[in-house]
């Protein structure tokens, strides 16, 4: 019971972090800490918790976005896509990432950043291009815009991961 309450509290806290970080970076196009927060939740507490953090946090952000909500199909794609980063974090933890040699960690984290970014933008760009036509030009321009997010995530993941690594070690003592 205590374990469940702790995990639910952490899911709520990380979901709120997504909203706060999204608000803080809202004027920097396609640069956001959402992917890293969801990846971290999956890494720390498993795929279900990571997916919940991504879906709840993105739901909060898309509904309460200061620029207005997205069209419902795009919003659903954003919510689903954001949750997928939790699975990437969970798989990374399951591979024993804490035991990797330090020189390979930045490369692996950059790869995780790429996977998380693609998992988010693929459904979002597909739905957006399908809705707002013409499909191919809209889809390609969506990917061009997401390159900024890809580049920032490749930098964010390796830079911020040491904090998650410390938290991971503390969480293992509590669980």
Tell me the layout of helices and strands.
Elements: H1 2-24, H2 34-45, H3 47-63, H4 72-94, H5 105-132, H6 135-174
Helix pairs in contact: 1-2, 1-3, 2-3, 2-4, 2-6, 3-4, 4-5, 5-6
What does this structure look like?
The protein is mostly helical. It has a single domain (2-174), classed as Arp2/3 complex 21 kDa subunit ARPC3. The protein is 82% helix and 0% strand. It has 6 helices and no strands.
Number of helices: 6
Distance between the termini: 12 Å
Q: Give the fraction of residues assigned to helices.
A: over 70%
Order of SSEs: HHHHHH
CATH topology: Arp2/3 complex 21 kDa subunit ARPC3
Spans where pLDDT lies below 50 across 5 or more residues:
none
Mean pLDDT: 91
Structural class call reads mainly alpha
Strand content: under 5%
Shape: globular
Number of domains: 1
Total beta strands: 0
Based on CA atoms alone, the radius of gyration comes out at 16 Å
- Main beta-sheet strand count, sense and barrel state: none
Q: Provide the CATH top-level class.
A: Mainly Alpha
> Oligomeric status of the shown chains?
single chain
Q: In summary, what is this structure?
A:
The chain contains six helices and no strands. It is mostly helical and 175 residues long. The mean pLDDT is 91.
Notable characteristics:
175 residues, mainly alpha, Arp2/3 complex 21 kDa subunit ARPC3, 6 helices, globular
């Amino acid at each position: 019971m205590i374990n469940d309450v702790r995990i639910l509290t952490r899911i709520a806290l990380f979901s709120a972090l997504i909203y706060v970080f999204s608000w803080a970076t809202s004027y920097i196009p396609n640069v956001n800490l959402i992917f890293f927060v969801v990846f971290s939740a999956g890494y720390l507490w498993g795929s279900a918790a990571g997916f919940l953090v991504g879906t709840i946090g993105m739901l909060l952000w898309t509904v309460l976005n200061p620029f207005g909500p997205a069209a419902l199909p795009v919003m659903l794609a954003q919510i689903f896509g954001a949750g997928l980063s939790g699975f990437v974090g969970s798989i990374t933890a399951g591979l024993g990432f804490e035991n990797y040699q330090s020189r390979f960690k930045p490369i692996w984290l950059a790869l995780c950043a790429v996977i998380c970014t693609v998992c988010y933008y693929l459904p979002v760009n597909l739905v957006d291009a399908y809705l707002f036509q013409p499909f191919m030009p809209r889809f390609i321009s969506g990917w061009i815009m997401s390159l900024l997010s890809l580049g920032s995530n490749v930098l964010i993941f390796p830079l911020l991961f040491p904090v998650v690594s410390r938290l991971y070690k503390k969480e293992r003592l509590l669980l």
